[in-house]
Write a structure and sequence with these properties.
Length: 449
């Protein structure tokens, strides 16, 4: 048997889909041919393959890339594991995720990265890359060895869940990015202003819940941008939730500071009114949903859901390129830390992997940005920034693909959530846009049948 025919045994033809590749500006009906795990050709192809998938009515796009998830393993496997978190991601159309280091032990040593790597090799359905901690044990006192961890595969550095309060450590972390090329990914929240459970404003007052002022985020965004300017290092601002944060990032970018930023679907489509019970998605034209209960712990997230004006400013930042990408901050929590706990003491975070694409598609339908822009924000842009070979459908690229039906409507139910946790305020709501198949290097890793 020739090498060529051997290769063809692994070939895959995805026929007649609406193919979107922001990298080459493709947004048209086409076929995609895959062989030996790589893209071979895209276009109107008169070819056969060992497997053919009919993609009529489906969008075919590069597999999504999420640079901000919490997979909870090791240490918190009652919330999520590499196996369940990667399945949830694959079900959401993701083929690559970057996992945050707030595990137990924290990802702060080469040994911790090696151990995670072994679990990923054994259990992960998709590509999982670790983000290492900035400080040992995430305690904010002593910097990790940035160069050693970057060499061991860390794709970034973050004490996410907390800010790194010590500006000297942040300066060193940012300076180190100039050597190893991986960003410092910051959770911006001033420690002296924490202690609240939701956005501080009229609604927190009405509900009598202690608030977190937006200044808690603004102060640290401003500090970290200033340190990025000082060092020339690469700063990536995680989950920007405030309009003033977008303004700061825009200004520093214009001055040449090397900074990037991400927004989350929940900060673009939900407001602090959700904590009071609203379930109206903002900035989109979706049917009304019945209200939820006030102070539902599933609406508690950090940074918190903000007022309308912030969601509008974030969207403007996405449209004008100030915000580079959309990630999820997928943050699973088991039932006892959410439903079973009063709002003030409940854990922060919501799951997001399985809902990000439908929420982004709702923003596309509302006219905020195009479908190729949505795919760019959720795949091509992170690939470009981190220098990954994916996020594109060009010949030779790894065949990481998502096929989704942009029209199918489905209801979020506990029974169908793939994550080990169900902490989302979207429970019971109907979304539009459903992932049908996810391929990793040409291998099917998820199918909605
Ligand atoms: Zn965070």
């Amino acid at each position: 048997m020739s090498t060529e025919s051997l290769g063809r045994m692994n070939s895959l033809l995805i026929r007649g889909g609406h193919v979107v590749d922001p990298v080459v500006g493709l947004d048209a009906r086409a076929d995609v041919l895959v062989d030996d795990g790589r893209i071979v050709a895209v276009g109107r192809l008169d070819r056969s393959a060992s497997r053919t998938v009919d993609a009529d009515g489906l969008v075919v796009a590069p597999g999504l890339i999420d640079v901000h998830v919490h997979l909870r393993e090791p240490g918190f496997t009652e919330k999520e594991t590499i196996a369940t978190g990667s399945l949830a991601a694959a079900a959401g159309g993701y083929t690559t995720v970057f996992c945050m280091p707030n595990t137990s032990p924290a990802l702060d040593s080469v040994a911790a990265l090696r151990s995670l790597e072994a679990t990923v090799r054994r259990d992960a359905l998709i590509r999982v890359h670790p983000i290492a901690a900035i400080t040992k044990g995430r305690r904010g006192k002593e910097a990790v060895d940035f160069d050693e961890l970057a060499a061991a595969g860390a794709v970034g550095f973050s004490d996410d869940g907390d800010s790194t309060a010590d500006s000297g450590i942040m300066r060193a972390a940012l300076a180190a990015t100039r050597r190893h090329g991986r960003p410092v990914m910051t959770h911006c929240e001033d420690r002296g202003l924490t202690g609240g459970a939701m956005h501080e404003g009229d609604i927190s007052q009405t509900l009598n819940i202690v608030g977190i002022p937006p200044e808690a985020e603004e102060i640290v965004i401003a500090r970290d941008l200033a340190l990025a300017r000082l060092t020339g290092g690469w700063l990536h601002l995680c989950h920007i939730s405030i309009g003033t944060g977008v303004d700061l990032l825009r200004r520093f970018k214009a001055e040449g500071t090397r900074a990037t930023g991400e927004a989350m679907p929940h900060h673009l489509t939900m407001t602090d009114a959700w904590v009071a019970g609203s379930r109206r998605l903002v900035n989109v034209d979706e049917p009304e949903s019945a209200d939820g209960i006030p102070a539902d712990p599933n609406t508690k997230v950090n940074p918190p859901l903000r007022p309308d004006a912030d969601t509008v400013a974030l969207l403007e930042g996405v449209r004008d390129g100030t915000i580079d990408l959309v990630a999820t901050d997928h943050a699973p929590h088991a039932e006892p830390e959410k439903a079973g706990t009063p709002f003030a003491r409940a854990g922060f975070g919501m799951i997001g992997s399985e809902f990000a694409l439908p929420l982004a598609l709702a923003l596309v339908r509302a006219g905020h940005f195009s479908l190729p822009k949505a795919i760019d924000l959720m795949s091509s842009a992170p690939a470009r920034l981190w220098g990954l070979p994916t996020g594109r459908l060009t010949p030779g690229a790894p065949a990481d693909l998502v096929l989704f039906d942009p029209n199918e409507r489905w209801t979020v139910r506990r029974e169908t959530i793939r994550s080990k946790s169900c902490n989302t305020p979207l429970l019971g709501m109907t979304l539009q846009g459903k992932v049908k198949r996810t391929f990793l290097a040409g291998e099917e890793r998820y199918a909605d049948d």
